[in-house]
Amino acid sequence: MLAAHASCCNACSLRSPAAPRCDGFVDASSPVMRWLRRRQQPRDAMRWLRRRQQRFKMQKLLFGTKDYWGKKLKVQQQINYFDFGISAVLTAKSICSIAMIFMQVFCVLGNTSSKALLFIFLIFIRMVCLGLFLGWRIRHKNEDAIWLWGISIVCEFWFTFSWLLDQLPKLCPLARATDLVVLKEKFEAATFNNPTGKSDLPGIDVFVSTSNTKEKPSFVIANTILSILAADYPVEKLSCYVSDDGGSLLTFESIAEAVSFANIWVPFCRKHGIEPRNPESYFNLKRYSYKNRVHTDFVNDRRRVKREYHEFKVRINGLSKLISQRSDSYQLREEIKTMKQRIEVAGDDPAERISKATWMANGTHWPGTWINPSSEHTEDDHAGVIQIMLKPPSDEPLFGNTPLDFTNIDIRLPMLVYVSRQKHPDYHHNEKAGAMNALVRASAIMSNGPFILNLDYDHYVYNSQALREGMCFMMDRGGDQLCYVQFSQCYRGCYANDNKIFFDVNMRALDGLQGPVCVGTGCLFRRIALYGFDPPRPKDHHIVVELQGRSLADHPAVKYGRQPGILSSAPRELVDASTVAEALSVISCWYEDETEWGQRVGWIYGSVIGDTVTGYRMHNSGWKSVYCVTKPDAFRAIAPNEGVERQLTVRYTPQQNGVTERKNQTIVEMTKSMMHEKGLPKIFWAEAVYTAVYLSNRCPTTAIPNKTPFEAWSGRRPSVNHLKVFGSICYSQIPKQKRSKLDESSERCIFVGYSTMSKGYRLFNLQLGQVIISRDVQVDENALWNWEENKVEKKDILISTDKEDEIEPSTPDSSSSQPNEESSTDPTSSNSSSQAQLQKGQFIVPTLNVTFLTYLLLITLTLCLLSILETMWSGIAFEEWWRNEQFWLIGGTSAHFGAVLQMFLKLIAGIVISFIPTWELEDDEDGEFSDTCLMILPITIMMANLIAIAVGISRTIHNTIPQWSKLLGGVSFSFWVLAHLYPVAKGLVEQRRRYLIMVWSGLLSITLLLSVWALNIPPSGSGVALR
After folding, report:
1. Which residues in the chain show pLDDT less than 70?
2. Where does 240-318 have alpha helices with state H?
3. How many CA atoms lie less than 13 Å away from 237 in the CB half-sphere?
4. Could you list the residue ranges that cross the membrane (predicted)?
């Protein structure tokens, strides 16, 4: 094994003063090596070697031209490696192989662009302005409203401190780049000891977590598994574990169907280099290029695989009905059999019936959750299940040629295991963290991969090289200090929200410190870090191994006593019945009793965000983490609009499906308006509905920014040149083949819609009394058909006078301003300042002088510039940025306030308040604004500001000398807050029913304002009259 190599030393100006000169490659008998042996501290020798390595001309060695090396240049110097004493003759090719050991698999790209420098400069300027502003505020007290001044000072200091905590990490953001070519050369290249090029990459266990199949479609889970099985990683080193916390037979059989389709999908991806490797995403690509395809049979293979995929989708969609029918059939047989046995024994027909079970395809009871839950077969009470869906692959590649031509393609599939941990009502399940810990223990027995990648059910592998990208960080120098690699999250769909500011700005900033936080999915963990071990210390590493960038514990020669490159010669043992039985025991509900699982080992319990707390625990132990951004995205999440779920509602309860009901109501109103405008009878209601849907799909919507639904679906912009007024009189041309020369060339019709099957209009022929389709049409949009007198009427302007059809004008949206969540230094006290208008004209400052306004202008201006730079970094539109600002203010006044309240109650009174995650709520009113006590504070703030604005305007109008400038300064803060809280008001208005929370919030805000007003009533004789 090659132990170490000292670099070429043509430039020796960096050597130690006491070190001898080196004129070439290092030889064991040279003065250089004798000097190294005389060194008492190996660390100093190591530092000297690294300094020598930095001066080595690696670029010329790796990328030198033919003239530089010569056509047949060979380096004939003998080299004695000082660790093993092995002699070798190096050619140019072997020199590159040696140099590859010293190359790093990834590099850190510092953000030294002009944007970063400007960002740092603006942060410094704003810090200075805030310091001067706070000093000025302390020196200038408002003696008339000292309580208001004190509250505003506390708020300003607190939010200045929080802003500093948020901005200081952004001073050193990092961007990292990986080199997959170097990774392949270092760990998968063919060498003298490894002629076949077997991979030395470590094993990875991929965890896919899901719980409730009713809310999480099995079709999405199957596509996620297919993308993992097709990932570009050594097959024998990859294992996939699916955690079904709900114990559903539907999920189990969906995975079985996915395995059946994977036999053709995975080799197809390997043969043609398919990207992405999620079949649903791949076949839904709007534009797919067939150029540069190596295999000529790609088109035929793709057509065959697509047909197989459609059949796979049909089977997945029919699984629920199939399971229900099968269970009914087996249940009927079981009941008949049991009834006969009881009649033979008891002699009568007992009325007692057995529980209705859920049956598997082999005619046995499903040990998990039944469709009709019964004792020991519910989501919170069922037995543990482990099923090996795909056995561990063989060590050697396996080639095949059926059903497609896979002659030279490896058709092996990674190991796939279905796991459903045991649950019992007497034990706490610890939600997702408990399921993850069960997978950690089960995988340690069955595959024991050194690294673990956890994914949610809807996060699929979009970049097949993503696993290798993560390994670049783990396998490079210093990689043994990393506990996890966090990949960026990316959502796709009409209702997707990438939260790019958090991932592209904050996560990069944290990467410049100890590392980013763990967000719960798309995270590659080191197994020993999850076990609670501390990171290895530098003194525990051998000098040679450290030079090669590998930790001693992971080095193949140390673990297996063999040279690198033949690690795969030890095949993985097959999983037998005893191994599965042992794995079943570790996923039992009682296994964690009196252990440190969930406290110091595995995922941490006791928090809704257990993933983030687990990352904090690792960082506190000394581990580091990195943030990985790949091109294209490593993983993508399916937004809620992708995937269709069939769900029925109760009759006469349209509120159960609020989003669909509102859309249906919109279509109905459009239909009524179109028919009423032209006086059409009800027999045309179907045509009117069809036309209303046709038009709504070609109208802009706020759900899809800058796109219409038609453009989002088809990928092309819709045309509006062919649109006509519904119900108008039109004249359709009669073809020459159907008329003589003296006949009329057109016939009178009524325009009733558009044809999607052909490029034509749908017309109602008044003579034939039926709908026809025609292309050549002349429309008179000011004419309509009088059905009572059967004649055409001309109306230039049609006005509806029915009061019941009048539409109330909608409330315009509040104007967008330029706030930021960090800028709450100023608007935070706006609640108090706006309420102060109810008093004697009091404000947070005695007077609105030039100094106060100047500070305010500088702080706001720098804030706006910082926000612009953040949006430029993350590449988002202003609308998305503004939505993010609203989210932070609403969350700060609701969820964050609830968290602080929970902390105080727990620390002072010992009261523990438990919160249920939103993804576990089974709410029948999806899409509606739901009731919660956390909304009391935002609604109270909103009402208080509205009342303050009204009272302030009223006082200014009735004042003898109106002070409009002072009113404008105070009211601007209130409008700023209301603009942020606009989504709350919109949710309350669209609900269209009264809320108890609104009542309490209104009473609370009115009570507080009246109390403040009562405390500040001027004394008699002061000369101020109350109105």
Report:
1. 1-116, 193, 212-216, 286-296, 346-354, 401-402, 491-504, 537-574, 639-659, 796-848, 873-877, 912-932, 969, 988-1027
2. 249-272, 279-283, 298-317
3. 21
4. 81-104, 116-134, 146-165, 843-866, 887-916, 936-955, 997-1017
Superfamily of chain region 180-638: Spore Coat Polysaccharide Biosynthesis Protein SpsA; Chain A (3.90.550.10)
Q: Which sequence positions are flagged as catalytic?
A: 245, 611
Locate the domains of the chain by residue range: 1-102, 180-638, 658-803, 823-1015
Residue 636 burial (C-beta neighbours within 10 Å; 0-12, 13-18, 19+): buried
Reduced 3-state DSSP string for 618-651? HHHCCCEEEEECCCCCCEEEECCCCCCCCCCCCC
Between CA 252 and CA 210 the distance in angstroms is: 12
Can you list the pairs that 372-381 forms with residues at least 24 positions away whose Cβ atoms lie under 8 Å?
Answer: 379/212, 379/245, 379/246, 379/247, 379/423, 380/423, 380/425, 380/429, 381/423, 381/424, 381/425
- 208 has which bridge partners? 242, 455
Strands 635-638, 491-492: pairing kind: parallel
The Cα–Cα gap between 16 and 326 comes to 81
416-447: b or e for each residue (b if 16 or more CB lie within 10 Å)?
Answer: bbbbbbbbeeebebbbbbbbbbbbbbbbbbbb
245 among the known binding-site residues? yes
> Each residue of 451-464: pLDDT tens digit?
999 999 888 999 99
Residue 292: count of CB within 10 angstroms of its CB: 6
H or E, element range at 178: strand 174-178
297 is in an annotated binding site: no
**Residue 459, SS3 per DSSP:** strand
Q: Encoding tokens for residue 453?
A: 């990648």
| Total-model pTM | 0.64
Neighbours of 1013 (CB within 10 A): 15
Q: Give the number of residues written for the chain.
A: 1027
Instruction: Count CB atoms within 10 A of the CB of residue 661.
Output: 16
Distance in angstroms between the alpha carbons of the first and the last residue of the chain: 94
What is the C-alpha separation between 389 and 420, in angstroms, rounded? 13
Under DSSP, the state recorded for 418 is E
Predicted confidence (pLDDT) per residue in 465-481, tens digit: 999 999 988 888 778 88
